[in-house]
Amino acid sequence: MKRCFTADLQVRSVQELRPERLESLRLEALLLDVDCTLKPYRDEEVGPEVAAWLDELCAAGVRLCLVSNGRGPRIERFAGRLGLPFVAKACKPFPFGCREGVKKLGSDPTRTAMVGDQLFADIMAGRLAGLFTILVTPLHPEQEPWYTRLKRPLERCFVRWEC
Ligand SMILES: [Mg+2]
Prior knowledge:
By secondary structure, this protein is an alpha/beta fold. The protein has one domain (2-162): 3-Layer(aba) Sandwich (Rossmann fold), CATH 3.40.50.1000. Helices cover 39% and strands 15% of the residues. The chain has a six-stranded parallel sheet. Strand 2, helix 2 (48-59) and strand 3 form a beta-alpha-beta unit. It binds magnesium ion. Magnesium ion is lined by residues 33, 35-37, 116-118.
């Protein structure tokens, strides 16, 4: 049970996941949450640092797919601007969206990680899909909708419990 709420790795930002580090973790593909992971909730675009990081990973041959609980048209526009495949309305913490992402990439699930800012959505979904899981400190969580902010204090308890 506890395993479901425990990420394999915690980072402060996605930019810490450099190609060399992913290689040492034997990861070939990343499923990426969108809101508060790649960009603040209200922003339409990623910042220049995240854009450069995505370019670096693509150049290194790391396969990427967005897996978001956000609605189709918004995530489709965002993915289109980045030129990345996507799964919208992924219903995390259920594992279906992650499984669909793995299928889209044709990656080995044991060498694929789910990267996201929410323990009770991204990490649980990744765990249930049998993936490596990476928890990222959320970008501007104060912009999140109320239903997401409600979960944050409980998430912090679980993160402390892991340490
Ligand atoms: Mg998120």
